[in-house]
TrEMBL record:
Protein name: Uncharacterized protein
Region (Disordered): 1-34
Compositional bias ranges of the Basic and acidic residues kind: 10-31
Matching InterPro entries: KDZ
Amino acid sequence: MQHVRKHWKQKQERSHCVAHDAVDKPDREARGTASSGIGAVDCARHNMKRPCAVGDLQLGERYINMDYIFLRSVAGTDLVRLFVSYDIACQWHIHLWARMAQYENEILDLPGVAGTHQRFVTFLVPKFHLPAHIEACNLKFSFNLTRDVGQTDGEAPERGWANANPLAASTKEMGPGTRRDTLDDHFNDWNHKKIIALGYQLRKKMLNAVPEMVKTRLALADMEESLGTEAVATWTEMAERWEENSGNPNPFETQQKDEHLAKVRSDLAAEAAQREAEGGGDANDVRGDMHITELLAMGLQLEEQQRTLASDVAATGLHPTNDQHRAMIERTSKLRRKIFAWIEVQTKFLPGLAVEREQEDNRRARAAEAEPVPGVKVSDIALWLPSAIVGAGGCGARVVCKAEVLEHEYRLRVGQAHETLHEVRRLLLVRTHLYKLKDTHARGVRANTRSADKIAALNDRVKRAAAGYRAARAALVSLGAMLRRGEWEWELLPLKEEDVRGLPRARFGDPERQKGKRSRKSAAKRARIAREERELSWIWLSWIEWAKARARSMRWREEVDLLEEEMKRVRRFSVWREGWWMEQVGRKSGLDVPQAEGETAYATRQAGVQRELRRLFDIEWDGVPDLVAAGRLSVVNEDDDAGVVAGEAGADDANADEGSSGEEDELIALLPQREVKTTYVDEVMTYV
C-alpha cells in the first residue's frame, strides 16, 4: 500500500488494442471500499499461487498494482527465462521497464543484467482471451505460435477464481488481517491439493500428449510430402528466422492480404473519383449517374443471384408447397425485372450488345418452336459481362471493350474468387463443427434427422460458393489471356468436385463412439482409406497452413518434453524434501524430552509423507517412459500406409477400430491401464 500511495497519481495509457474493461472500466460498486478485489500471479503450468503473489486492487487492475504483484512474486528467482501470461499483456508490457525505473525499488526488478530484460522475458496472452484482441496481437502474443511453451494455455489464474470467488461473501465483511489470513489459508489449501494430485494430473496430460505428438507429426509429414522439399526448406528457413527474431517476416501473417469484392469496389470507386477530380476521367465511363465500375459490380451481384435462385429452385423438388411456389414466382419475377433494368443501362455503355441480344433471342425462338413452353429461365439469361464478350471472340467484333473496362472486371473477379474461396473454407469448417456436434450429441431418429437436414442445407451452400469460385476463375482465364496477366494463377487453382472437402471424419469424429465401431475391412483397404484421409485438398495447403501445422507439431513435442522433465523434477524434489525433513531431527538443542520427541515425530512424519507421495507417483507413472520412448521413436512402416508403430501389428488386426489412426491406439496400449479412484485425492489427504 505504500507503493500504491506513492504512485497513485501515475497516469497509464489507454489500450491500443481493444477496450479492456478490467483496466478502463473499474467496478463502480467497489468505490469507497478498501479493496475492489485482488490480483494474483500463478504458475501457468501447474495452476498454483506463487509466493507473495496476491495483492489488493482499488480501481480495477491498475498497472501500479499489477506491476508490484508480478515483480514481487518473481523477485529473487533463479529462472533465466520467463513466459508471462496476462490477458492484457499486449498493452501492459509496453512501458513496464520504464515504470520499473520510476519505482526506484530494488525489490521491484527482474533478475538479470540491467537493460537485458526483453531478452529472456516473453509476454503472451492466454489462449481463451486472445481471440478478442486485434489481429496483430493474435500473431505476436499467441501461445500456439511461441516456441518452448508446449500446450500451456496461460489461463491458470482464471481457474483459481472459480474456487476463490465464493469467499467474497465472507471476506468482504472481515477486517484486513483476518481477510488476508483467510485467503492465505484457502490458497495454501489449493496449492496443497494440486501438489498431491500431480501424479494423476501429469500422467493424464502425458496420456493425451504423446498420441497428439505422433498425430501432428504425421500430419505435418503428409503436408510436406504434398508441398515438395524446395518449398518446405524455404518456409522452414523463414519460420526459424522469425523464431530467432520477431522483427523478421512473420510466417503466420499474409504478406499480401486477399482483397475481397467489397475492398476492390471501394478501391475502384476511390480511383474513379480521383480521376474525375483531376479532370482525367473518360466521359464514356459514365452514363447518367452510373460509372462503368458500378455496372460491372451490379452484374456480378446479378450473376450470384442467378446461381442462388437456380439452387433454391432445384432444392424445392418436384412438388413444392403453395408458399414455396409463390415465393419462387415472386423471386423469379423480381430478379427478371432487375436484370432487364440492368441490361437497359448496359446497352448504353455497349450499344453493340443490343444486336447480339436480338440475334440470341431469334436463335432461342427458333429452337423453342418445338418446345411446349417456350422461353428462357431467368437464371439462364446471359448478362454478357466483358469476360463473356472476350470469351465469345468479341461477339463477332460487334462489341468492343476497352482495356480499362477489362482491367476493372479483372480486379473484381480476383476479389470475387478470393471471397468465394474463403467462403468455401469457412463453410467446410462449419460443416466439420456440425459433424462433430452430431457425433457427440445427436441421439435418436429425430435428432439425427434434424442434424442431417442442417448438414444437407450447408452442403448446398458449399456447392453454390464453389460454383461462384469456378465462374470467377473462368472469367479470369479469359480476361488474363487478353490482358496478358496471370498473377492469380499460383493461388487460384481449378476447383474440382473432389477438392471441395474439409478435414477427414476420422480427425474430428467422437473418439469414444468410434471405438465402439468394429470394421472387418481388409488391411490393404483400411490402409488405402487411411492414406486418402490424410491427404488434404489444395484449398487448405498454403505456407500459412504449413506454418500452423509445424507449430502444432512442435507444441505437442514440447509438451511431452516439458511433462517428462516435470515428472523428473517432482520425484527429485520429493527425494530432496524427504532428506531435508530428516535433517531437521535433532537440530535444536536444549529441548525438553517431550518437545524433542514431538518435533522428531513431526519431521519423521513429514518425511514419510514425501516418501509415500513419491511411491504413489511411481505407481501412477509406471509405463510412462515406455510410452514416451515409443512416441518419439515410432516410425511409419514403408509397406503400411495406415501409420502404426514399427513392430506393432495394429494394422493387421481384423478388428481394428474404424476411423482410428492406428498408431495412437497402439501407443496407448503400451501404458498400463488402471482405474483411478475418484477419491484418490481424499485418500492421500487422509494419510497426510
